[in-house]
Amino acid sequence: TKENGTPNHNDYGRYGNPTVRAVETRLAALENADNAVLMSSGMAAITTSLLTLLKAGDHIVITDDCYKRTREFVGDFFSRYGVSCSVVPIDDFEIIEASITPKTRIIISESPTNPTLRIIDINQLVELAKAHNILTMLDTTFATPVNLRPAEFGVDLIVHSGTKYLGGHHDLLAGAVVGRQELIEQIR
User: Fold this and answer.
1) Which helix (H) or strand (E) holds 77?
2) Which of 10, 144, 156, 163 has the most Cβ atoms closer than 10 angstroms to its Cβ?
């Protein structure tokens, strides 16, 4: 049986353990979201989520000020597997909307951005995505749930590099993806 889409046994570390589940539960509560998955790094959270949700032929819209390694993964790695992307200005919603195709599955952004601290209009992002039936992913590593809870705006997936501000001292390596139950179950 499962609790919140999570195996409720601890006989094998891959299925979780009480400590990991406690962190996931706390992160979901802090974000005011359904559930969370704790991972080995922020990039693991991003890449695992995208690999779960996308397939050859799909398209991604990503804002130009996202974390460099995220842009590299989306642009370089996915192009080898038939997933295309459009890199768009974070602050130009006309261009963002013009980049959407019938194959667009997700819009990825970051707020505040690393390292330039640019902010995206989350309400406008969610409104645009919902109008086109597209998922939203927002990296809020720099904000943490103390300062920003994107699920309350309707963002589908929130990602964090726990190595930075969630951990506080660069003394741990972790990442998390937080969001709606049905998406988190797929990603888990």
Assistant:
1) none
2) 156
